[in-house]
Every structure is written in structure tokens, then in C-alpha cells.
User: Fold Probable alpha-L-glutamate ligase from Marichromatium gracile.
Amino acid sequence: MKIAILSRNPSLYSTRRLVEAARARGHETKVLDVLRCYMNITSHAPSIHYKGEELTGFDAVIPRIGASVTFYGTAVLRQFEMMGVYPLNESVAITRARDKLRSLQLLSRKGIGLPITGFAHAPDDIADLIKMVGGAPLVIKLLEGTQGIGVVLAETQQAAESVIEAFMGLKANILVQEYIREAKGADIRCFVIGDKVVAAMKRQAKAGEFRSNLHRGGSASLIRITPEERSTATRAARIMGLNVAGVDILRSNHGPVVMEVNSSPGLEGIEAATGKDVADQVIAFIEKNAAAGKTRTRGQG
Assistant:
């Protein structure tokens, strides 16, 4: 097969591992900077050009689209879909997962465990919004934040009111969520491929920090997850419409709660913590499922 990998940086660990795994299984790969792709949007003959040449003959495309280029990246991916190229994750599913509010609403509708979450534009009573999620301490998140950026733990009522007022003064969209104290600064990253959790790791925040992101200095270790956590992760990925996803779960007193569903989960942390060749399993999934025009939405929506 000929596989395109949409990535801004070919030297990134995840991109390199996917290239290695694909070539080891006998496939041809081409890493494309998604912002250098440009499209001919025309009836019956959609095409994509890259550095002066038309891209042709691809059987599958692996999107590794950063959050800052979601709009343009998904437009390019949608063009591949319209050309009949099989996407590992579809453009509609990626857009859905990147919208934190929409994704939480979709998960909530299907009964997935979630932290109590409040969302408001300009509430007349911030105190009532805080009360709605169980009071302080609570977590305040920017809707557009990634890798733990724009996430604040407000430990008192006064601090929560001040932070919410400050964000609203900047016209920022925020979520207010209950703080799962019993998680003790740890979460579980479940790496889902198809309908299976193929690897799972525990991420522990460093001392004095509540965000467990590895980019924030958190540590990763192997963990055995429960059948309920496994089911929650696979269901969350399916609801988002993602074939490959990183589902972040907290262990709460009322069972597993989903914090986020990531459409471009990194491979470095999960492969190091588990010793599993996750990249190879991603390519194996593509081999099994790739077919021309098999995209469910076919670039629609």
C-alpha cells in the first residue's frame, strides 16, 4: 500500500515510528506537511497538490494533525476522503473530538461517566455555576487548550470566582468541572485501536502539580485496567467515531470518568511505558480495513 502521513514534522517520534512500522510491513510512505498541501476543489475530480506536484495513488492516509491547524488539516483530510483514500481517522470525527464541549455532550448523551461539568457564556451568578459542579476545589479549562495548557485548579470559592471572572473578561470560552480529588493527580491513558484497548498507562503528575500530562513533567507507568475502564474507553472512541484514539480516564469514587478523547494520541509515552509496538498495530489495522471509498462520511459534513 501507499500511505500518506499528515504531519508537520517528520522527525517527531510518533511520525517516525509510523513510517518505520509501515516500511517494515512492506508499505510505501510519504510524510506530508499538511499546511503545504493545497487543493483543487472541483466536481468529479478533486485533487491535492504538494510542492508543485499532484498527489495520486494513495491507498490510506494517517492524520497527525496538531490542534493549532485543525481547520486546515481537516480540510485537507476531507479532500483525501473525497478522492476515495481511506483515512485512519475521519475528518468529521477529528473535528468532533477537538471540540471539547461537543464531545462531552455526545459522551453524556450516551451515558459515559464524566466529571460534573458546567458551561456558560456570562452567568448572572458565578456562585451558582460553582455550586452546580459541587463547589471548590474545581477545575477551570479553556475550550481551546491542549496538553494541559489553559487548565487551572481553583482551590477556594474566592479563587474560582476570580479566575472565572478573569477568563470571561477575556471573552474566553471555559468549562468548569468538579475536581476528582481521589484520583490524586493521576489519570489513565487508554490507547484504542478499532474496538480494543491495545495499551494502557498510568500518568502521574509531578509533586505540587495536578495535571498529569507528560508535557507538564508527569511520569508514565504500566497499569492493569478494569473491564469497566476498558469498556468505557472503547465506547468513548466509538461515540466520537474514531478508529484510533487516546482516551483519558480518571478513577473516581463513582467509577471511571472520561476527561478527554484525543484523536492524535502520541506513541512515545505509551510505547515506552508498556513496551508494546503500538505503531505496528496501527498499520495492521489499516491493512485490515483500508479500501477505496470506505470512508463513512465520504468527506461530507
